[in-house]
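seq as requested:
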Amino acid sequence: MKLIAQVKLQPSKEQVELLLQTMQRFNEACDFISQQAWDARQFRRVGLQKLTYYDVKAMFGLGAQSAIHAIYKVADAYKLNKKVKRAFRPLGSISYDERILAWRLSDNTINIWTIAGRERMAFVCGERQRKLLEAFDGQADLLYRNGEFYLHQVCNVDDEVEGDPDGFLGVDLGIANIAVDSDNTIHQGKTMKSVRYRHRELRRKLQAKGTKASRRRLKKLVGYERRFATWTNHNISKVIVAKAKDTARGIAIEDLGGIRDRITARKPQRATLSSWSFHQLRTFIEYKAKQSGVKVVAVDPRNTSRTCPCCGHVDKANRKTQDKFLCVDCGYSGLADYIAAVNISRRASVTTPNISTIAPDLRQ
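struct tokens:
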């Protein structure tokens, strides 16, 4: 499994200027390559390399490997859409490999290429990142964010061997409750919703003002909401995986791919639905589970919150409200998200060979 180790660089004032100039020169080269690609309608890596390699080295002072990385960056950008000419931010990220970036973990320094030659500079990171860096492999990206430089290094991590799970911990994903498991642990989404609403309203007011101060404030707010959502999802996924590992269970989760296309939301709910980060939470659960040797199974989410876990009766009328479940056949009631999590757990047990279905008496 490949993971990203993020470290913060600590360059001197002179090195800061060098890194900024290097990023600007690199992205100027990308703009030049993009123009050549657009004019010649040549978007493949090999074709672009033949077309622009020597010109890029001569015009922008890039080294051989940096010129190749600039060409690859442009080619990868055009993979998404060849109908729009690509432009690159002056301080967009730069990619490095082991030929132009060397790690010195013994003294927390790196040796990195710049337009003025190699530079040695210090970095800081946490223990988790340091452990990841012991198995670094492949490309690293240099980013400039909020006045600081960061390196994102790809690292290879061995997966833990998955054992045979003793049942599954079902997880229902939602907006009001971000996640509810079949042990009735609720991870509420109230704080997330309030943060999203507050920032949405603040952006609306600042955009309506249109002053220099409001634009500065908008720029400062960029990414806060996204970072808070990421931090929340990391914490929730960590708790879910740890619980499954401690109880020797696998994790059963809904396959919600394409759900936004299947749901028709009222206008006041569209912004909330579009900002729902269920895919990110699922991704975090899956990669953390791989690290811990926990099996993850995705199941069909249809009717999970309309099926009675006691009598098996399926009816739209069972879902009385957004959060309440009441079976019209046997009268069993409970939190709808918890009911869905139990049904998800059972579906995973039924569809997975050699796994017994754990069906506790929910009336107790």
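Residues 356-360 have pLDDT under 50 and may be disordered.
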